[in-house]
Design goal:
Blueprint lengths: L32 H12 L10 E6 L4 E8 L7 E9 L6 H19 L3 E5 L10 H18 L4 E3 L1 H8 L6 H12 L8 H13 L6
Parallel strand pairs: 1-4, 4-5
Antiparallel strand pairs: 1-2, 2-3
Helix pairs in contact: 2-3, 4-6, 5-6
Length: about 210
Amino acid sequence: MAIENSKLKHLVPQKTTWKNLPTKAVRVPECFVEEIINYAHSLDQNTISATDTPRWLGIKPSISKLGWAVIEGETTEEPSMIDFGLIETDSHDPLPYRLGEIETDLLEIIKDYQPAHIAIEQPFIKAEYPSTTKLLQVLGVLNLVSYRHGCLPILIYPATWKSNLDHPKADREDLAAIVEQLFDLHSILLNQEVDAIAVAYTAWCGLGQQ
């Protein structure tokens, strides 16, 4: 309870200009302090736009060319395409640097588009493949970024999203044609972007598991 003091009654009460800062002290790791401050600033500046329409971020994991796509739409109507692209890393760079680059770029995508849901392709892991270790670490980064955003990602197997569009053994050319038709796209490249769009669409359809 505040202590009343007659000598202070003539002073004009002051209010903080940061409306969204916590009202009590909270202990957080020092590495998150700058991120928390920037987020508080962005709230006061109304830079984060909220939408009532469900928005999905689909991700095709890869250490070299990670595909991503953002779609949105109510379940009662066809979804619309917001944006899609690739996060590319240089094979000559050390693995920790490449993982950090994926994290940084993905955080920027999430900050720009504010997806309400995140869907990640769950690849089949084969221990005899040399790329397995790198792919597992990429999946770890994706899960961590999703968790920090407040989402438990939906995991979708390749056979699931392929079956949702066509059949489990459909080739990328046929899948790309279906994706183009669904979202009225033209001459989309046959790469991980197609897979990411399909993953987002399949999750929007209600398939996959947490």
